[in-house]
Structure of acyl-CoA oxidase:
Amino acid sequence: MAQETFLDPTELDIEAHRAQVLEQLRALARTDRPGLGYDPAHGGGGDVGGSLTSFEMLGFGDLSLMVKAGVQWGLFGGAVQLLGTERHHREYLRRITSGELLGCFAMTEHGHGSDVQHLRTTATFTDGGFVIDTPDESAVKEYIGNAARDGELAVVFAQLITGGESRGVHAFLVPIRVGGEPAPGVTITDCGRKAGLNGVDNGRLAFDGVRVGRAALLNRFADVAEDGTYSSPIESDNRRFFTMLGTLIRGRISVAGSAVNATKRALAVAVRYGERRRQFFTPDGDEVVLLDYRAHQRKLLPAIAKTYALHFAQERLVSTVHDLGTEPAEHDQRELESRAAGIKAVATWHATRTIQTAREACGGAGYLAENLLPALKADTDVFTTFEGDNTVLLQLVAKGLLTGYRDYFADLSTLATVRFAAEQLVETLLERTSARKVLDRLAGAADDEVLFDREWHLRLFEDREEHVLDGVARRLRKAAESGDAFAAFNDAQDHVLRTGRVHVDRLVLEAFAAAVDRCEDSAAAALLGRLCDLYALSDIEADRAWFLEHGRLTSGRAKAVTAAVNTLCAELRPYARVLVDGFAVPEQFLRAPMLES
Amino acid sequence: MAQETFLDPTELDIEAHRAQVLEQLRALARTDRPGLGYDPAHGGGGDVGGSLTSFEMLGFGDLSLMVKAGVQWGLFGGAVQLLGTERHHREYLRRITSGELLGCFAMTEHGHGSDVQHLRTTATFTDGGFVIDTPDESAVKEYIGNAARDGELAVVFAQLITGGESRGVHAFLVPIRVGGEPAPGVTITDCGRKAGLNGVDNGRLAFDGVRVGRAALLNRFADVAEDGTYSSPIESDNRRFFTMLGTLIRGRISVAGSAVNATKRALAVAVRYGERRRQFFTPDGDEVVLLDYRAHQRKLLPAIAKTYALHFAQERLVSTVHDLGTEPAEHDQRELESRAAGIKAVATWHATRTIQTAREACGGAGYLAENLLPALKADTDVFTTFEGDNTVLLQLVAKGLLTGYRDYFADLSTLATVRFAAEQLVETLLERTSARKVLDRLAGAADDEVLFDREWHLRLFEDREEHVLDGVARRLRKAAESGDAFAAFNDAQDHVLRTGRVHVDRLVLEAFAAAVDRCEDSAAAALLGRLCDLYALSDIEADRAWFLEHGRLTSGRAKAVTAAVNTLCAELRPYARVLVDGFAVPEQFLRAPMLES
């Protein structure tokens, strides 16, 4: 198909944009990509890593297509595949793959987004089937992609009620549109214009006594017999719920990957502009190229370094998901969910900040739609709060650490976390002390021996994580004795979030360092190594208040870190173009008038 | 006129939006606001402060109107008033005020935006008049508001050539559109869709041998006689140029004011949402209001404090401009330009960051156009780079400080600055030492005696500024001896920018402190005082790495600052609503479905 099929629009109205994205989706459906991650028994490719990577690649183009494809094949198809059983796979997967059957993933409600456990839509078992109801305004399904215009079937998350008893949230297949019109009992409204992603038809869904058959329940983890008897291979309601949710982490991984790729695109645009654009003359009468200014280098080069870092962290995550397969050990699965959550949070915040920086670095030209950055900015904005609000996700990462992934930390109950922290932490922490020994050894060395030493970076990140985690555990443990678990948790919330963040920073640095180590081309390895230095030192510089406060850096060494970041910016400046070329953004997505005239 | 006239659109296409904004502009023209700042002799109100305040008020509504009105009455009309003489005032001001004559301010070119001195459009005196030419692509006037659709006359900045000699940049009145069609020799193109502000018709202007009469020169600061003889009351070309530019600072002041008001609106929306929205339950079964979470308070309350701070700084700036009148002493004028530049930079970056935070604080609802934040975000984005790129503006502030406002520091020549720094700085710095004495006295006091002491905040900000300025001056002085002025300046650029920033931070704190002092209602003064504490302590917290590195804070006190910010967030949380109500955003601009259902 023509490459132009995938160009992103700058001048389409909403309806035309939606139509174009649907057409692009259909073009994609004619390739082998959509079914890559599904079971080969139903026409899938059985290649989870390939599937995730192909979603990521959509991050280079119009992000509306990435999101619409993500809804169709990742969330909707993924739920059918991972929460359903043979009968669902047989009946739906081929039609979902081919795009013949378009669907929605109806989880979020008007009143509950992050707190999925308290969704209020109900699915009541009666007369051999389920009746789906929206009890009130707060239970209306909200922001549902594919709902306003194209979806026919929805995976609806609802509280299952059978025998008068509530069994918690389960997923049901519910037809929402028949022959282009809302199905009986289903009310669909359009969310209208959004800040971005206007090629995706987000809508609201309300259900009024909608009957579906017993087979509508996606019954891999729980079933209801003909007589209404409820059964599940997982005894605990909590555990079952989080097992179901856990299967859906691929969405978060795809968002993180797309965010990283959108960031690459913005940086490629900004560097090309920064190498062409000149402003102000030197005393010698030369007009200075923007990227020769230190302030401009400071804006773009550390961002390039962090984007490489996140690229490698993301690559490692995707490999792990791929290798773990569909039935990972529980501890591994918990750890993986945590890692996906953390990288999604850090990568999407990085995207928001960096694309903004890229826009400003291109001045007025960056504000024109034709120069690509406005759409990149508007489209990626929501990434920080959808597929898990970043603040909530970092909290989830911290809880995983605090509980040693030993339980369903995805349950955000503060009481549980405080208790865990109180009971389980001492032993976890005592295992780690090696980092401090290395740091103590290096403390006396000269700046230039230490600042570019990978061992020093790694141990510093590790030691920071240990110290922050230890501190928050102590605080929560002490606070747990105070009686008011919420107040105790809330009082430490910024500390908890910091725990999640420094943990992710450490994982990201490790992934980058590993990528440098395995690079076989020595020139490339040397360049990547310097870039990894810049990532590590920029991170340390940004957080140097903490390092100073906790005696990890002297003020002399802290100032040396800042100086080293400047040195690296100057040293890497000649490679800026080659570094963004290394992102391999397809040229068709870099066509902007400001880069041509 | 109906209040609804001024509602901002969420669903209009570009042409409809432009039409609506023009209609709003015409409605405004029927009030006495547009002419408030002009000379009473030509129908104006002679009230500069009132005029600036009325532009600021437009910052509460659709920012396209603020920008279009700013172009028409601030930039275009302002240039006629301040760069023109009696003959221009008589001929144009009334028609500009009434909106009968719509105009443009054609300064920025494709190749030169920040570096206005090197604009390349030419105005050649010949046969008793001027011929305006665009010599090449890089000289095309770019992003010109009012150009694509409505403007008839433009103030065009061009290199004046008379007698074969170039006289530098001057301003000329050039008709660009006659009877709705481009004037002969004028090519107008449309900049098309932008990230925001789509109600403003930005366009490009190119001139091919366009003849205008001798009276087209706005001749307050320079004139050309019938025989082509050039004369000016200001001898130095450089000085004349910056005197002309200096008269135009009102645009920057208006942008800063609008940015502050747009920020207020975003915060009012986010606080209302944060007080309604609940997510996750406490162990006691209460669903927690978002604003009761520490992380949420941390997102919004320091931003509210800084918005108040900037409000007062802006108010003080507007008063000063008003009081100085049209013929201020040169030093006062330079200092004022610097202050306007600095507050514009800090206020617009604060707007970009805070509106983004507000969007994220409202989750998915904040991403829907109907909930106002997307337009606020998209519209204000360009504020950081138009009317002066913020990075360039902070540099200008620093140069003012380095030269003691003794010359035309708006000239960004690096050579000049390095020389000034080398020659003039020692004396300036020796004058200031009192701050350190107070700080030394307070260094030994207990945290709780110091942290909420306004004297401590003020002296700490002052001392930081002195130290940073002293340091950069030493660096530049040393570097000046090295011979390569550009390299020396560039090497210190981040330090130079920091100098500008900490200077503005000090001015802003002083303005806030003065506002608290003059507040006569004791309850309000107490609340404002705590808010001022929060502003000061948040700023210190964000910059505590510097204070630690330079021995201004011990690590114990730095941690106490962080704890104090948390304490203040909790203490002020019950007043969040009253604080945003205090912004007095008209209720009609806060109507969002997410705040109603």
